[in-house]
Amino acid sequence: MSIKVNGLSKIYGTQKAVDEISFEVNKGEVLGFLGPNGAGKSTTMKILTCFIPQSSGTATVCGHDTTNEPLEVTKKIGYLPENNPLYVDMYVREYLEFVAGLHKLGKITQQRIDEMIEVTGLTAERKKKVGQLSKGYKQRVGLAQAMLHNPEVLILDEPTSGLDPNQLVEIRSLIKQLGKDKTVIFSSHIMQEVQAVADRVIIINKGKIVANDSTENLQNRIGNEIIVTAEFKQNIDRGLLGTIKGVKSYEQLKDGKWNFVAEGKKDIREDIFNFAKEKNLTLLHLNKEEYSLEEVFKQLTR
């Protein structure tokens, strides 16, 4: 178990930023950590990385307690904070050499810097000062420093903030690749990104965990009905559609295009396909409507 959190709380005055949350993350798992602004995401991440202490509860990283063994924890973790603090007067390579010195990388310093510059796409910008970089490239420098010492755990707070669409694809792919042999926790407000990358999702709201499951299970959890949209090349007699198995109701959207509501939780796409085949109808489109992760998020954090 790479990360184990038990009854973790953080109180600021009278406000509970984190309210007795518990969860675990395994090695080789990418966890999407979601929640509205002020829900407690960044606070939890700061506790796990030993930037701030918890008020109560425990957190361990690779078997080391964040309260009693903070130096051992920080050796195991690579951290990209939300605001990505960088030394803007340093050159990119100079800054990474400085970070390598903090981690005491020694003889492998230059090799690791070369590797991180390549995997984060900083090659063309490596001779510039950090302050001269765009926001997207500054974010890449933050990712490079987080991964420089080859940590077992990566905690990334809004890692794709400020990236353009092409950079987004590259960094998503990198996070997915890193998750094969590391533990990765990342927060994001881009739901498509979480669906594309995360193996599991935790949603936190007002300091409490309101969901902890795979994206697929979360999407199925809120849907009360299965709706399938089908488009036929031909116009079809309405009464004929009543013979399709498993269909509770149906509604015409336009010529040849229909919405079908299933009885219970049955996926009726196969029944509609077989119906079209039996009646010698041309099926142009068949799609099961799904609740998006964004809709799940809205329902759970209202």
Describe the protein's architecture and organization.
This protein has 302 residues and is of the alpha/beta class. The chain folds into two domains: 3-213, 3-Layer(aba) Sandwich (Rossmann fold); 221-298, Alpha-Beta Plaits. The chain contains eleven helices and 14 strands. The protein has helices at residues 41-48, 70-76, 92-102, 109-119, 135-147, 165-178, 191-197, 215-222, 238-241, 269-278, 293-300, and strands at residues 3-12, 15-25, 30-34, 56-61, 64-65, 77-80, 153-157, 183-187, 200-205, 208-213, 227-232, 247-254, 257-262, 283-289. The chain has a six-stranded mixed β-sheet, with helices on both faces. Strand 12 (247-254) and strand 13 (257-262) form a beta hairpin. Helix 3 (92-102) crosses helix 4 and helix 4 (109-119) packs across helix 5 (135-147). The longest helix has 14 residues, at 165-178. It starts with a strand and ends with a helix.
